[in-house]
Structures are given as C-alpha cells and as structure tokens.
Amino acid sequence: MVDALSRDVPVVIPIAAVEQHGHHLPVYTDSYLLGEIVRRVSSVHDQDALFCPLQWLGNSDHHMDFVGTVSARPRTYLDLLRDLGENWLRHGFKRIMFINGHGGNDVPGKQAVFELRQAHRDRSDLLLLMATYWGTGSNGGPGSNALTFVQNEMGHACEWETSMMLALNPALVGDYRDADPVAPGNAFLPASRGWTTRDRSAPGHIGVPQAASAEKGEVLFSKFSSEVGSLLDRVIAWDGQSWEG
C-alpha cells in the first residue's frame, strides 16, 4: 500500500514519448527503452523506491511533421509534469525524481522541477530532480569496452537507440542497414537554436543507425541502468537537508 510507505521514500516518475523514429524504429521507442531501464533499476530498488507508471506523452512538437507523432505543447507538458510532482507533494512525499527518456522533455522537465521548488520555497526538506537517462553518468558515451561505437552522444533513431531496440526486441526494428548517416552538425554552437526535426533530417533519424548491433544495445542498457541506479542510491541516502548529495 502506498500510504504505508515512509514519506522519505523516493518517488520515481518515468517520462518519455510517442513519436516518429525514422523509417526503422517504432513510434514508442523512447517509452519502450526507458521502460526497460526502469525495469532493471526497479528490480534492484523495488523495496526502497516507489516507481510510477511510465508517462508516455511527451513534448514532441518538433517531430510533428512526421505522421505518428503524438505531442503535448511545451507549456502544456511542463504543467503536466508540475502537476504530477505536486500530486506526490500533496501526499506527503519529499523526494521526487523524474527520469526522462526523450530529449524534447529535457527543458520543460527542468523548468517543472524549478517551478515546483519556487512554489514550495518555505520548505527545506524537498529534493526535486529531473534527469535524462543517457546523461546521468560522468561520461555520456558508452565508455571503454570491446565494441567500437561510432557515436559519442545520443541522437535519434541512431546507433544507440537502434542498438538498444535490437537487444530488446529485434522484431520491431526495420531496415536500419540502409539508413544513411545524418550528422548532428554544428547549429551555431554554443548558441541554442530553435529547430524542427525536418530542419535537420529528411528521413527523421539523426545519427548512424547502420552501426547498431544487439551487443552494443546490451552495453548501453547495462551502462544506463547502472548510472540511473547510482543516482537513485544518492537520492535514497540524502540526509533530508543538505544541498549536495
């Protein structure tokens, strides 16, 4: 029973998306992959954290030129996340962690926890976090192993996502071997440019899908699950007051 839990138990809220993933991956790729990472983490932490059902609706407006995408507008999505967090605060829980599996959720997710904190600024016992699973480690890339990765960062329907899907359910992967590479490019860095997916990619993927393999997918699942689990360990161990953890 949820009501029997200590209010110091972390509440983990997985958030992802349903959107186009090029010509070779299903529209629920982000939700499917994050669900597997959360499954692995929860198998270790099922007694010391509360895992919410995965929220499949994401902020995917930049993919709306591609049929199959379902999206909430950024402000609508931000308010949805803020309300989800507010629900658990209302129930008395104090440690809330959104774990994200879609790049478009990053900005509204961070803003949601920022706004939540301002709304409860008189409290000193809250820990409100938003983290994207491929950014929870000190090194965002796959690290050193026997396999050679072409990409050193997450793309979209790319080497990483295609590899993880091959490891999880290869029957859902289409012809990734004929997908031409689409480089992420340098879009006026270090500035942040407004963009749609169609600005960057006619087929809808960004990265090098043909470099994918199931073996690489398992390396990535192992890495990301371990890193999310380590972050959750820090949340569990937090002393309830300090800035650092």
Folded structure, characterized:
With 245 residues, the chain is an alpha/beta fold. It has a single domain (2-237), classed as 3-Layer(aba) Sandwich (Rossmann fold). 35% of the residues lie in helices and 8% in strands. It has six helices and four strands. It has helices at 29-45, 74-90, 106-119, 159-168, 197-200, 214-237, and strands at residues 11-15, 50-51, 95-100, 127-132. Strands 2-1-3-4 form a four-stranded parallel sheet, sandwiched between helices. Strand 1 (11-15), helix 1 (29-45) and strand 2 form a beta-alpha-beta unit. It is globular, with a radius of gyration of 18 Å. The mean pLDDT is 96.
Q: What are the salient characteristics of this protein?
A:
Rossmann fold; alpha/beta; four-stranded parallel beta sheet; 6 helices; single chain; 245 residues; 8% strand
Any chance you could write out the topology, listing elements then pairs?
Layout: E1 11-15, H1 29-45, E2 50-51, H2 74-90, E3 95-100, H3 106-119, E4 127-132, H4 159-168, H5 197-200, H6 214-237
Parallel strand pairs: 1-2, 1-3, 3-4
Shape, principal axes of CA atoms: globular
Between the first and last Cα atoms, what is the distance in angstroms?
Answer: 28 Å
CATH architecture name: 3-Layer(aba) Sandwich
Low-pLDDT windows of residues: none
Biggest sheet: strands, sense, closure?
A: 4 strands, parallel
> Could you tell me the strand content as a percent range?
5-15%
* Strand order in space, largest sheet: 2-1-3-4
* CATH class category label: Alpha Beta
Number of domains: 1
TL;DR of this structure?
The protein contains six helices and four strands.
